[in-house]
Amino acid sequence: MAEICYFGGLVHYKSPSLPLSLHSLFRSKKPHYYNSTSLMAECLSSSTVEPPSLLVFSGGTGFNGVVEELKKLTTRVAHVLPVSDDGGSTAEIVRVLGGPAVGDIRSRCLRLSDESTSEALAVRRLLGHRLPIDAHQAKKDWYDIVEGNHSLWDGVSRPYSETIRAFLIYFQNEIHRRPNERFCFSNGSIGNFFFAGARIFFQSLDAAIFLFSRVSEIPCDSLVLPVISTNDRLTLGCELQDGTIIRGQNEISHPTTGTTQTVDKRHCSTSALPSKIKRVFYMSSEGNNLLHEVFPPVNPTVLEQLRSVDCIVYAMGSLFTSICPSLVLLGVGEIISSRSCRKVLLLNGSQDRETSRFTASCFVTAIADALNRTHGDTNIRLKNPPGYYINTLLVPKDGEIAVDLKQLSEQGIYDVRVVESVGDPKHGILFNPSSLINTLAGLVE
Fold first, then answer.
1. Read out DSSP for 375-417?
2. Which Pfam families match (predicted)?
């Protein structure tokens, strides 16, 4: 158990050694990595007919609503997510402790987690919990959770609770090691704190994802992949058509006034961008020239999966801050353009700040430009037509985005299908999950 000491009114937690339940998993001094190919083969060795395999480019919100339905079709899915989000509780973690943003990854892991037992639901409830907005109450609740006294631990067995608490305590210790930074727990995500503690402990984002996947019992053939496997902070930037440079994902998609209130990207009250987005790119997070463009390498496992999956999906969501950050990296466009599989774009049902006045063909152009790196360094530019990257477009019925069929056909996209939708008072028109997955099933089976 953790040892609790008091210094000048501050609570200090002495990190326990890893619980016995983890010794077999982490007995090596090096982080425990897993090979996605061998793991998938092991999971499917007893099956005679393999379900289809997909790779989905998405953010942490837009595609979450259909993940449960997708599991009915297949769990052989590689979920590729960006690690450049600098909003919400992720921003506070990155500000104080550095490292990549884990919010989108945590969100997808929770959606994929097991719900078949009462304990699985208890673990999911704990890791999905957000602290109150009020800073004082948030800090009080956080200490109750770390000390194991909060009701969120009800239903979580000792092996699980020891494992999770070990990394929450480690996260707390890392905060205390930075006395000059005051950490704000308002609206903080317990899952994000657990993720950050594991990442810092192992000095590996991959190892943290592996641990989170095992704790939340994600299907063994489902992969949650950061598009960039790094232990460093990443900053997203964008260039507008008028030459304006905007630094930071939050500033691009939904700038806030510094409050801790949650933001709905599609219906936020922020002003429109002064000009359309021309491109997104990664910016230096260190040094004096913070506008300097950098070129981080893509996660090799993403490229490995792109070469072998049956279908590539560009999910609905924030086009320039959730999808394109995964597409602009070297190697991604090269592999996708070489594949002859289904390449499906799921069109948004509503406009947002990033895509105001966009038609369907504008979405296609943005994705093709990102994969071609059209507006970047001429030495690494590709010149593939849009049809090399997208060959099928799925459109939610009654959506706000105009479907300009003539322009789409000129881009080489002839397979356009309308899918049943549902209206959501907060998010507008969304794909009906079962209809969407049924349509995808018809494409890949």
1. TS-GGG-----GGGT--EEEEETT-SSB--HHHHHHTT--EEE
2. CofD
> Which residue type sits at 96?
V
Query: What separation, in Å, do the N-terminal and C-terminal C-alpha atoms of the chain show?
Result: 51
CA distances in angstroms from 346 to 315, 316, 396, listed in the order given: 5, 5, 8
Average pLDDT over residues 316-340: 96
Residue 297 CA to residue 301 CA, distance in Å, equals: 11
**CB contact at 8 A, 285 and 232:** yes
Comparing 175-184, 263-272, 404-413, the range with the smallest average pLDDT is 263-272
Number of other residues whose CB lies within 10 A of the CB of residue 395: 20
Report angle CA 405, 410, 415 to the nearest 5 degrees: 55
> 201 with 166: CB under 8 angstroms?
no
**pLDDT-derived band at 60, boundaries 50, 70, 90:** confident
> What are the backbone dihedrals phi and psi of residue 130, each rounded to the nearest 5 degrees, phi first?
-115, 140
Amino acid in the structure at residue 164: I
